[in-house]
Amino acid sequence: GAAMAGVLNASLKMAAGWSWRSQLGPVIRAGGGCLNRRGSIPGPPQIWVIPVRGSRYNPHYLEPELNKEWHRIMVTELGPEESAALELRAVRPIKAATINQSSSVFSDPLTSKFINMMMQRGQKLLSRSIMSKTFETIKRKQIESYHKAPESEKDTIECNPHKIFHQALENCMPVIGLTNIQRGGKSYQVPTPLTDNRRRFLAMKWFITECSENRHRRTHMYEKLSQELLAAFNNEGNVIKRKRDLHKMAEANRAYAHYRWW
Predict the structure, then answer these.
(1) What pTM, to 2 d.p., does this model score?
(2) Is 164 within 8 Å of 233 (Cβ atoms)?
């Protein structure tokens, strides 16, 4: 009876998002009895309950709202669905925000992703400092160009480094790529469309490899990165050339497109 009660308790915890395992203790038989390694009948089985990834919160927990603009809306201006969601958040528990989530206006997921890709050997502080110096260098160059430009051209000069960074990445994202497919003992470079994550990854990878491998040894990383970002913002530079070369190779291999089965 005690053994079956322990098994029932473990089953209920498993249904709630937990898992159990027996560690070098009693082995539960199909008939309900318990035997240890010596063959004697012990007491109730020893069950360790360990949490499983993703089961920290119950399903009725709500996701945190990170947009501050949503909290500034007056209650009288909310619609029926938004009012119902607000009333629901008042009575139901809310999950804690993860470490990569932030409600700050300076938080940018794309910039954080680029910093993580640029990081080597866990030196994230160095990667952040390089990114901040890159934005500072871009800001200085653009403000200098703004003051030197005539009045008619000042409105066309972008001085926000974050907008320049986003536009430069958008300009360098390839639309189509190449995939190796073997047919009849031969390998063919087949053009395939790329997902958004793959397009963003290739653009960031090209920026990092271009700045780390093809720069002068006396040139700092943030100086080279600012040059490449400004060049890509104007659809120029080596990263734009790599994207165009990839498109040309995909155009040359369009005869192998029928080898793609997905």
Answers:
(1) 0.67
(2) yes
- Report the SS3 class of residue 153: coil
Closest-CA residue to 111 (of 157, 152, 45, 169)? 169
Token pair for 258 = 């029928």
Phi, psi of 19 (to 5 degrees): -130, 155
Closest CA to 172 of 211, 213, 130: 211
- pLDDT tens series, the chain, 262 aa: 555 555 555 554 544 444 444 333 434 444 444 444 455 455 555 555 555 555 678 888 998 888 878 878 888 888 899 889 889 988 999 988 887 778 777 788 899 999 999 999 999 999 999 999 999 999 999 999 999 999 999 989 999 999 999 999 999 999 999 999 998 889 999 999 999 999 999 999 999 999 998 888 889 999 999 999 999 999 999 999 999 999 999 999 999 998 887 6
**Nearest to 226, CA basis, from 149, 120, 132, 127:** 132
Helix (H), strand (E) at residue 219: none
Contact 176, 250 (CB under 8 A): yes
Rounded-to-integer distance, Cα 156 and Cα 204, Å: 26
Whole-angstrom CA distances from 141 to 56, 144, 212, 220, 240 are 48, 5, 21, 16, 21
Q: What is the DSSP string of 86-127?
A: HHHHHHS-BPPP-TT----TT--HHHHHHHHHH--TT-HHHH
| CB contact set of 86 (below 8 Å; sequence gap of 6+) | 75, 78
Please give the Cα distance from 42 to 28 (Å, whole number). Answer: 11
Count of C-beta atoms within a 10 Å radius of residue 199 = 20
